[in-house]
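One such given next:

>
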Amino acid sequence: MLKSLFHWKVWVNILLAAAVFVGAVWLTFRWLEMHTNHGKEIAVPNVMNKSVHDAIKILDDSGLSYEVDSFKYDPKFKPFQVLQIYPSAGSRVKDGRTIVMKVNPRTYAQVSVPDVLDRYKGLAFRQLEQVGLKIGDTIFEPSIQRDAVLRMMYNGANLKPGALLPRFTTIDLVIGAGPRRNISVPNLVGLTVQEAKLIIAQNLFEIGLVEHEDGGGDESDIVYYQDPAAMDVRDQGMQIDIWASKKTPAEMGGKISQLNSIYRIKMDYSMPDNYDSDAPVYQAPAPRRSETEMTEVPRPTAPRVETSNVEVKKQDAPKSTTDQRSKQVEPKPKVNTTPVTPKTTPTKTEEKPKVKKVIVE
């Protein structure tokens, strides 16, 4: 078996296989050198701080490809100025290598405006600042939504959520200042439903019930009744109900009378017939006399009244009420407030009369 390994034919086959392998490898590398331009490298030209148009022209002349990408906007540089390149300037690359250029854009990158409508102003400010937008003027407008964002404005026009604006753009906000009180309700009778809705919105009232006589929804119908009535005083934000028909208000007299009986209830503020308007009058109490005055006043002597000796039995009938009313009260004698001087006798000049103590009950 060993003799067969050293046969000349075996060695010939081995040498032929080795030659084929070496030739294949050599041909492969030659093909790669030709295809990849091995040994033919190009230095990347310096296009930093040049305009993107000039940089593209230089790369085309050098046989290099390019790719332009926007960079973060920097107001210190000119728009479309090349700020970075990769590979860097001076690097040696193959012919056709793509060079990536970072260019300063015309302005800031665009951002989407967040939806902050009907939200509290403090929360709206934070959301707008997070996306890079600035708050300009805050305009307060009467509305029932106090401190809520009603509208967003940019250059005097209404701004819708989702619109694209450059970063750091300044926008204005319209914020609700709360409803106004005691506002006269506008007169809507005789107008079309479309005109009535517009006037209601302009006066910052809310549209309530809209009832059409035929049950449809034609906004060209004429308003023949409203609640609250015209010139009534209401707060802004209150609802106004309207009734409309294709007929004129003069032709809807019966329906108007029926609605008046429901929505125009009159209150009777007249006084009843049995109302007693006489109010009790306060009377001040009579002043009381002091004890000194009471002691100095002598007791008056009441006149004697002769009474008959006829005894009244207990079984007698009581006196009638008419007799009691007819009985007059005897007038009280006037009290003399001046002290009475006692009479003096010639025999007893030194004696002084004693003052009697009188108790008036």
Q: What stands out?
A: The radius of gyration is 59 Å. The first helix runs from residue 2 to 5. Confidence is low (pLDDT under 50) at residues 290-295, 305-331, 340-348. DSSP finds eight helices and 16 strands in the chain.
